[in-house]
Design a protein that fits this description.
Length: 300
Amino acid sequence: MDNTSRKKTAISLNNGVMMPALGFGVYRIPPEQTADIVLSALETGYRLIDTAAAYNNEKGVGEAIASSGVPRPDLFITSKLWPTDYGYKSALRAFDRSLAKLGLDYVDMYLLHWPLPSDFSKTIDAYRALEQNLRDGRVRAIGVCNHNAANLKQLIAETDIVPVVNQIELHPFFTQEELIQTHKRLGIVTQAWSPLGGVNIYDAAPDKARHVLDHPVIASIAKRTGKTPGQIVLRWHIQQGHSAIPKSVHPKRIAENIDIFDFELSHEDMDRISSLNTGIRGGDDPQIVTTDTYPVIIAP
Ligand SMILES: NC(=O)c1ccc[n+]([C@@H]2O[C@H](COP(=O)([O-])OP(=O)(O)OC[C@H]3O[C@@H](n4cnc5c(N)ncnc54)[C@H](OP(=O)(O)O)[C@@H]3O)[C@@H](O)[C@H]2O)c1
């Protein structure tokens, strides 16, 4: 890898829009703390902020953007539509609501948060609303989360615009290689959620063996390279050409997580990290999602 690719901090989406490779996720950041924490992330240098209607903190993200002084075109703001708002008209209304909470007149990327496999026609109708938002210039790129290869195939067959991104659970314990190959074939960027394996830590999983950042292989690479385990794992994502959106509420970690563009991992280290795959996801299988199993109603 030459010096230029080592420092490659942006990814070109299939519609030509450039997206920062590394972003800041805000899931589980309490609404009342969001403005301060996102402002800290913006001051540290993050330009991609990943929120969602269901995180109930779009307002705080908007406040941070407004007070940051960062020019709007320099930012890349993502939000997501929750399944209880799927359907064409309800999706349009929900998008208006998100924009109002963010205090923005456009977002850079807007994603379907989950597929609804048992009622996929609703997923399609929601995606058609995203296409309309794109045509109206109110979003610069549209995509999906948590879709498997069959979901993507059906979505692409029944709509006009290939998603730019599929945001999926992805970390060294769950590497989803087949799905990533599908993304490559379709021109879809892979964006890792829980890139540090956070989904295995939340809800106080007592079993340390499930914690990616505590794994001896990660720890030994970190020690040898003088980097932290978080930096090693994030570098592993970015070096594969994926995007990653780590979350932290701590300024020290927020700074550490974006400071990964001045070193590279060897092929051997990349392979050793990839070989930690267990094939077991930490989160729910997206194929079980219905509006009954995921019943969140988004506040007005
Ligand atoms: N599309 C979807 O369905 C979906 C699902 C889940 C998440 N997401 C997105 O992905 C983002 C990230 O995922 P995530 O929050 O699940 O997991 P994550 O970013 O992999 O991990 C976050 C956890 O790791 C800790 N952490 C962060 N940096 C660290 C570091 N350098 N060293 C040690 N620990 C560190 C955080 O604790 P502290 O905060 O205490 O530092 C938190 O407990 C979310 O915020 C959200 O934007 C999307």
